[in-house]
Amino acid sequence: MPMRAWHLGRETLARWAPSWRDMLVGPARLLASLGDRMPKGLYARSLLIIITPIVILQAVVAYVFMEKHWQSVTSRLSAATTKDIAAIIELYDQFPHDKDTEDKLENIAQNQMGLDVEFRPPEDLPPRGARPFFDILDQALTEEITLRIGKPFWIDTVGRSDFVEIRVKLDDAVLRVFARRSQTYASNSYIFLLWMTGSSLVLMTVAILFLRNQIRPIQQLANAAQDFGKGRDVQNFRPRGAREVRQAATAFIEMRRRVERSFDQRTTMLNGVSHDLRTILTRFKLSLALLDENNPEFEALQNDVDEMSRMLEAYLAFARGDAAEQAAPTNIARLLEELRADSMRQGHDTKTSFQGNPIVVVRPDAFKRCLTNLVSNAQRFGDAIVISAHREHRYLTVHVDDDGPGVPEDRREDVFKPFLRLDEARNQDHGGTGLGLAIARDIARFHGGDATLARSPLGGLRATVRVPV
């Protein structure tokens, strides 16, 4: 029996589990949708965190005030006014219904109750008008008159701004009453609403101004880090703001100093290595100059020395990375024209085009080396070359297209690896160090961008450099 109950329990849970999962899917999707619609910036999110509780608190206070205090006071005032009207009706019923009685009751109502009373001949009551949108007074008066008088009546809480009109149908007359609006409901509530709205606006204004001053140092720190990554001068950056922001800014400054010191040390080391290696290459070249050019080994040795010199320059360029160069305004259209002229001199059909503002802040020599490497790669494997670039609001994009054999899609990331030559995909008759594309991507990433490969409209390879400006 216990085993059977256990199986029944498992079957019940299995039937109910999908229902519970379906019930949880809706809230999860709602939360995901709200997350997508939330602001992404720190300033907007901080404002939302501060303003949302203020709005909720004010809404709760307003609801409690309207529901409890204002409605309660309005009900009491309406009840008092209704009692006065009921007393006048009771006195009218107890005395003769003549002109003298009506005059006395009107005087008593005017002097003792503050009501403007008039006994009119019998007539039909006006039709009931549309209830006002904000009808706490209308509702309270209706309930009190129905409860305490119990006669046909008509009220107008909208028509005259300073008075409320009430008509009660008696047996042989119609009692018309004008009461001041302040007698029937809490008329000073707008002061509370104005105070609540004004205090909310003041709090939100203070929050906006305070948050703007607090977030500005964070934005300055982000801009300084971005400028440093692009090689721009950030010497004027100083820690500002709250203690945590100052700590982050101080850490960034120390990191910048360590990076610059590391660059200086590496540059010094590379200068020493390049000097020593170039000295040895110079000895080789002098030795070759002393050899007889008719020697069958002369040409082979000359090619080896030239190849070694090119490889040395490529290795040093890759190791150096041009990280110490400062960014400066550069005419990209003129740079592309120089690349086109060099390529034409080497016998390649080359075209260029540029769209947008040509002045871009980049590291001039490094960026030229980046594009030169891409053009050289296109020259080795293609005949026709197209260099196109366009400047957008935030990015500069340069395409180098060729009509060569291209690179398989699954190997396009591999060719950016240092010292890798993808000879099976491109011409095997061309050598190289395998550093050209690696250096190009390294320089593009130093600028905060990237270099990618894709299929070219010319049928070969398209190399794309995209950097922020």
Automatic annotation (TrEMBL):
Catalytic reaction list: ATP + protein L-histidine = ADP + protein N-phospho-L-histidine
Membrane-crossing segments per the record: 42-66, 190-211
InterPro entries: 2C_sensor_his_kinase (IPR050980), HAMP_dom (IPR003660), HATPase_C_sf (IPR036890), HATPase_dom (IPR003594), His_kinase_dom (IPR005467), HisK_dim/P_dom (IPR003661), HisK_dim/P_sf (IPR036097), Sig_transdc_His_kin-like_C (IPR004358)
Keywords: ATP-binding, Cell inner membrane, Cell membrane, Kinase, Membrane, Nucleotide-binding, Phosphoprotein, Transferase, Transmembrane, Transmembrane helix, Two-component regulatory system
Enzyme class: transferase
E.C. number(s) listed in UniProt: 2.7.13.3
Membrane topology: Multi-pass membrane protein
SMART domains: HAMP, HATPase_c, HisKA
Domain Histidine kinase: 272-469
Domain HAMP: 212-264
Name under which the protein is recorded: histidine kinase
Organism: Labrys monachus
Lineage: Bacteria, Pseudomonadati, Pseudomonadota, Alphaproteobacteria, Hyphomicrobiales
